Amino acid sequence: MLSLLPNWRLSYDGLVQIPFIRRHFKTMTLSHQYRCVYTVGTYQSHLSWVGIGRGDRGYIKDASGDPRPSSPYDIASVSITEAFSPLIGIDAMFLNNVTAGLKYQKTRNLNLNITSYQVVETHSGEFTVSLGYKYAEFNKVLKMRKKGDFSNDLMLRFDYSRRRTQSLIRKIENAYTQLTAGTMTQSLQFSADYAFSRAVTVRAYYDLQINTPLISNNSYPTSNADYGISLRFSLAQ
After folding, report:
1. CA 170 to CA 167: how far, in whole Å?
2. What is the DSSP letter of 145?
3. pLDDT given at position 57
4. What is the mean pLDDT of residues 215-224?
5. Its domain of life (predicted)?
6. Distance (Å, rounded) from C-alpha 85 to C-alpha 126?
7. Which of 91, 76, 95 has its CA nearest to residue 31?
8. Pairing of strands 98-113, 77-94
9. Residue 173: phi, psi to the nearest 5?
10. Whole-number Å distance between alpha carbons of 44 and 231
11. pLDDT tens, position by position, 101-141
């Protein structure tokens, strides 16, 4: 527990003070975040546990009646999840209202199963690129009359991500490590949202996901594509 790091989050938006960046960007923000979660699974107390001195040092008696060093609790599993989300991230807005973002994330999950004496480790890395643009008063392009002071904006967004995930099983007794699963996932998302009014928004979207296995097992490369048009009504004014 003492070796776990505290969570933190850092962001910096002072790059726009540099003259070259100020001539091309309205805003630019660097971000970095680390999160760690320690989880103890189901556990129960040893009724026959005998403490020695202070702290959690003690013993229980095994089937033959001999003392065996033990903690006060019978813990089945322990897991630690660490994530840099992101390890490094850049979000910027150009002078022409185009937004852009770059982000790289790393995640690691360790699951210790005390019953089977093994550790399952899963780690992943993901790189994401995003672009966006807000076309204000798009009704003028459609040659539609403006209603009141409401701005009929068109929001365009594009996202591409590439994620690599691997899972390992580490046998504690045999000092043996085996790669059990691995996947390369590529995702492409595009959407366009047009606000007809304060209550009605039309959205067109296209999502593509490609999964490629990294090891030769029973899995095969797959791809899924979703596209369509949605109409959203909002009762809140």
Report:
1. 10
2. -
3. 77
4. 83
5. Bacteria
6. 10
7. 91
8. antiparallel
9. -65, -40
10. 52
11. 999 999 999 999 888 889 999 999 999 999 999 988 777 77
**Burial tier of 159 (Cβ tally within 10 Å: 0-12, 13-18, 19+):** middle
Note whether 202 and 98 are same-domain residues.
yes
3 within a domain of the structure (yes/no): no
Q: Does 64 score more than 60 pLDDT?
A: yes
Q: Would residue 190 count as lying in a domain? A: yes
Range of the structural domain that residue 224 is part of? 8-41+76-233
Which residues are CB-contacts of 63 (< 8 A; sequence separation ≥ 6)?
Answer: none
At 222, is the pLDDT very low, low, confident or very high (cuts 50, 70, 90)?
very high
Count up the domains in the chain and report the number: 2
pLDDT at position 87 over 90? yes
Model confidence over 111-120: pLDDT tens digits? 998 888 899 9
Residue that is last in its domain, among 75, 93, 117 = 75
**What is the amino acid identity at position 181?**
A
User: Do 14 and 29 contact (CB within 8 A), yes or no?
Assistant: no
SS3 of residue 172 by DSSP: coil
Which residues sit opposite 42 in a β-bridge?
none
Task: Please give the structure tokens belonging to residue 94.
Answer: 């150009």
List Cα–Cα distances, 237 to 62, 155, 199, 233, in angstroms. Answer: 69, 20, 7, 11
